[in-house]
Amino acid sequence: MIDVISSLLIVSGLGFYLAGSVGLLRLPDLYSRLHALTKADNLGLGLLTAGLILQAQDLFIAIKLTLIWLAVLAASAASAHLIAQHARRRETRT
Questions:
Q1: Which domain holds residue 35?
Q2: What is the pTM of this model?
């Protein structure tokens, strides 16, 4: 049963990654693309991590996976904010 739940979480995470990639290619402006990437990829990584945690052999591996996910969440939010801030400053100069 755990294998089925883990597989569903991993496949769902990959689906969110696919949705974020489609959003990157299809959405019209930078801000929409950033939104699609950060939201879809963070949720996709969370689901993927949850699926992998269910397959983890011990608690130490599960904790490391969770810490990696939290670090990526922080880096993703910070980088998206910096990119949007830079684009906004560039727009107001002209």
A1: 2-93
A2: 0.85
